[in-house]
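Problem: given the chain below (227 residues), write out its structure.
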Amino acid sequence: MQDTETRIHAWHIEAREYRRQQERRGRRFAYPALTPARTALIVIDMVPFFVDANPYARGITPNIQQLTDRLRAAGGTVAWVVPARTERTPVGDEFHGPEAAEMFRNSGGTGPLPDRLWSGFATAPDDIFAEKSAPSAFFPGRCPLPDLLQERGIDTVLITGTVTQVCCESSARDAFTLGYRVVMVADANATGRDQDHNAALATIYRSFGDVRPTAEVLALIDAAPAP
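Solution.
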């Protein structure tokens, strides 16, 4: 029987980190507002390989769907990113072990990109679909996402998906390096343990972007002036 248990991480940012940013820039969050038309929700690696195996990944799917629906309605962009099937390499075999390397190499599945997503999502014709051949969706030359976002004039990215401290954190770091305003959605990212999740959130909040829960991101979308 397929596991259907769902969980949400008990996420937090330490009070001292909030104080540090408040003292540095005079406000808790770097980005107190967003423009939906210039904002993209980035959904990373929400494919059966990861979602079926992790109750935390299943637990964030309602939040991701709510964010996609609300941002689309406000004129924003939704981008679904899935792992590409990469070539086998000696380094990959050495690092992961041959069996695990082969498993990860095929984690994104095959076929049309929309069909490779976990089945619980509703997509739309104007959504972006992209493959990445590196942990980060923003690493130069390894994913078309940055070029696709540039074509739409995107300056703000909302990072969601799995695994928090691997592909999601890598994408957030590289997006910041490329000049995007980055918001990591705390309860729309997932990994295997709360401590790993929270360590990644702390790193992002300290050095690369804001960390906000779904409810606050939805409030930012709703508060934006009508186009």
